[in-house]
Amino acid sequence: MASASAFIVPDCSSSSTAASRFIPLNKIRIRRVFQINYHPISAVRWGPKSSLLNININNRRLFSSMALTVASNAETIAKVIDGKSVAKHIKEEISTEITRMKEAIGVIPGLAVVLVGDRKDSATYVRNKKKACDDVGIKSYEIHLPEDSTEQEVLKYISEFNDDPSVHGILVQLPLPRHMNEENILSAVSIEKDVDGFHPLNIGRLAMRGREPMFVPCTPKGCIVLLYRYGVTIKGKRAVVIGRSNIVGMPAALLLQREDATVTIVHSRTKNPEEIVRQADIVISAAGQPNMVRGSWIKPGAVIIDVGINPVDDPESPRGYRLVGDVCYEEACQVASAITPVPGGVGPMTIAMLLSNTLSSAKRAHNFE
Ligand code: NDP
């Protein structure tokens, strides 16, 4: 049972996990599993398994001039994995690279976005992607179709973008309206322009040994890039991915496996998830459950990548809510060796990886090194 010296968790009150699972802080021996040294990507040893990331993240030159400082809070133990800052630097590098390509061969990368329906969150995501494209010099094209459009209409636009040489990446904003077959639509995107990496062929290649997908899904790729950027060794480590969705959990697990981690996937039917998570050196959580992962679930010294973005009520916020991750940040900070915040962790990396994939696609299409 928790004693009076158990964690104080003001920010994790929205979790459904019983407080009796807390472990008093004085019972936890903090042992660093990882030495977390933040360094530029050029200093990272990309092993053979990393060639996949290397190809798709762009060449090393793109990342060679990075020099960031790690934000850390004196009152906590974990280092903050600052995705916002890493993403900003990656975007600057992409912008420089786009200028170089434009000057050398006159090509500007193009990204086409297909949005169907009037979901506010989807419209916001598309707006953010368009702005990010503008920031780095990618030309963006947008097709916004009404909710009651037919699948054929969506397929027609995808086909046009497939044939358009000025478009190097095509993104279909999910979720699609219920009457549409997502698989049909995602499969219609040319594998050479599938910058989201959701085409079954790209996912299949990601899963198979000895095969290379043309693109890796952006959010999982952002998670792995963050691990690399912070010098976290993946090879030989025990990793747990919470969530098995097609867009985050499953490809994240495949990527970790390609990087030679021993991977376990936890999902909604997993029994005793805390016991499994507690064995992990690296945790990637993408469950969409606010503050589900408590400090007591975490192996001391583990590295935590929190993908979850969950709104919870907050009367003190002007919006009436705030965003939290899947991991109880305050508790995890006292146990983990490094952790991504929410917001400001994985989120900004997702868009940076989309831009990176689009640039890679344009370079590949024009054979530009
Ligand atoms: P999905 O709802 O598609 O998948 C959630 C997964 O989590 C499922 O596999 C589900 O299991 C599992 N899960 C749900 N509840 C639990 C639980 N209590 N214990 C263990 N596993 C559980 O979500 P997404 O993958 O699309 O997104 C996950 C989170 O990541 C969301 O918060 C989303 O907002 C965020 N996100 C963030 C992005 C970013 O850029 N940072 C990008 C994309 C998503 P089962 O399969 O059994 O149902």
From TrEMBL:
Residues 217-365 form the Tetrahydrofolate dehydrogenase/cyclohydrolase NAD(P)-binding domain. It catalyses: (6R)-5,10-methenyltetrahydrofolate + H2O = (6R)-10-formyltetrahydrofolate + H(+); (6R)-5,10-methylene-5,6,7,8-tetrahydrofolate + NADP(+) = (6R)-5,10-methenyltetrahydrofolate + NADPH. GO terms for biological process: photorespiration; tetrahydrofolate interconversion. Gene3D superfamilies: Leucine Dehydrogenase, chain A, domain 1, NAD(P)-binding Rossmann-like Domain. SUPFAM superfamilies: Aminoacid dehydrogenase-like, N-terminal domain, NAD(P)-binding Rossmann-fold domains. Pfam families: THF_DHG_CYH, THF_DHG_CYH_C. Residues 81-196 form the Tetrahydrofolate dehydrogenase/cyclohydrolase catalytic domain. PROSITE patterns: THF_DHG_CYH_2. GO terms for molecular function: methenyltetrahydrofolate cyclohydrolase activity; methylenetetrahydrofolate dehydrogenase (NADP+) activity. It comes from the Eukaryota. One of its GO terms (cellular component) is cytosol. Pathway: One-carbon metabolism; tetrahydrofolate interconversion. Transmembrane segments: none annotated. Keywords: Hydrolase, Multifunctional enzyme, NADP, One-carbon metabolism, Oxidoreductase, Photorespiration. The keyword Protein biosynthesis does not apply. The keyword Transport does not apply. Homodimer. HAMAP family: THF_DHG_CYH. Belongs to the tetrahydrofolate dehydrogenase/cyclohydrolase family. Catalyzes the oxidation of 5,10-methylenetetrahydrofolate to 5,10-methenyltetrahydrofolate and then the hydrolysis of 5,10-methenyltetrahydrofolate to 10-formyltetrahydrofolate. This is Methenyltetrahydrofolate cyclohydrolase. It comes from Stephania japonica.
